[in-house]
Amino acid sequence: MKTYVALLHSIVLGPGRRVNMSDLKAMTKEFGFANARTLVATGNLVFEAEEQPIRKIEARLEAGFASAFGKSVDIIGRDAEAWLKLAAGNPFKDGKGSEVVVRVMREPLDPSVIATLDKNRSSTERMAVVDGDLWIDFGGKASETRLLSALTTKRLGVGTLRNWNTVRGLAEMIGC
Fold it and tell me: Among the four residues 35, 41, 106, 118, which has the most C-beta atoms within 10 Å?
């Protein structure tokens, strides 16, 4: 068995409806995934499964999610080793845990994307692409930046944001 991390792009099903984490864990059990556990109620899942390609896990979870919850959601997966490498690669460890985020990507970003995003960046914000994932230190509240509106699937591809606190928490859950 191998440990995997799965990140849901959204757990909002509609007005006033959110995915219950116990329902999400039950869904993974139906696939034969073992020891499913979540970190906070925002769609962060750690589980064990027979070794298989990440794309296969993502596709199974996305199809299962759509069937179980009636909504299509992008789900980004990593195996434990890749997640620990992502966590170790944070270029902004000197930033505050809630102000540093990573956009975990399905397909790796080219570092040139930073030039495209520069027009939306404030002077206090720092960005770096590490192994295809986009790290950002907002240097303040992410909700108050113009940069957020540029971090869309249409512009960057399929991915999802997680703050540094969550990245570390998931790393701890898988044994870092």
Answer: 106
Are the C-beta atoms of 8 and 19 separated by less than 8 Å? yes
Structural domains present in the chain = 2-82 (3.30.70.1280), 84-173 (3.30.70)
The residues pairing with 2 across neighbouring beta strands, listed in sequence order, are 49
pLDDT in tens, 68-124: 888 888 999 999 999 999 999 999 999 888 899 999 999 999 999 999 999 999 888
pTM given for the model: 0.91
Tokens 């329902």, located at residue? 23
**Sequence letter at residue 168:** R
Place of tokens 């930033």: 95
